[in-house]
Predict the structure of 3-deoxy-D-arabinoheptulosonate-7-phosphate synthase.
Amino acid sequence: ASRPFHPDDTQIEIRGHVVGGPEPTLIAGPCSVETREGLLEIAHAIKRSGAHMLRGGAFKPRSSPYSFQGLGEEGLKYLAEAREETGLAIVSEVMEPGLVPLVAEYVDVLQIGARNMQNFPLLKAVGRTGKPVLLKRGFSNTIEEWLMSAEYIMAEGNPNVILCERGIRTFETYTRNTLDLNAVPVVKHLSHLPVLVDPSHGVGHARYVMDMARAGIAAGAHGVIVEVHKDPTQAWSDGNQTITLETFDELARQVRAIHQVM
Ligand code: PEP
Ligand code: MN
């Protein structure tokens, strides 16, 4: 993942869009895949706003075992149907090595969640697929550890790693996490891999998402991943930090505008 081994920036083409290319990458969707109809409505709306990829968890890493755990394969089927209808690429999390072949069958990008950033057998398993991987930074992990996790994937022969800063734990409690924007220029200096920011998990409150999406792009991020829903108050997970379809439309416009002057 280190610059000296690969001086040029990595570009990853996914369904016609180049991550790390001239356009900022826009990924949006619900925290969890819920109903088929609800997902299709979100997919069509974000497509109209210029998104490149649809996100949605089918296997969810919930803090409580009693919270909704995701629809599993049924959710992956809804995501694949949304791709069929809209042409959006699909991003979804995989939590265990044994499920990598199943999830890889349905998605364009395998997401490694913050809680699994150092699950080394899982990193090796997604490395072996050769598919693009969105590697989130663990909320208590250093940049060095994050880049070493990217290395685990790449050492299996998979160069298609997209880094994602999603906030780290600090003493602050007004926000869910602290989006570490320092990490963006630092990893761009140390590594050739593209880096996105996730302001939704980074702040944990919908009202701050737009500001930190703009800030992430201004810091040099290659794009954003955000949680959106038709009615965030009804979302099955992470509703507090989920923005509306209308807000996403405006966020996409502002992200493109800022990226243009970078
Ligand atoms: C998510 O993207 O819904 C998610 C669980 O993210 P993280 O792993 O960053 O908490
Ligand atoms: Mn979430």
Summary: DSSP finds nine helices and ten strands in the chain. The chain has one domain: 3-260. Residues 3-260 form a domain with the TIM Barrel fold (CATH 3.20.20.70).
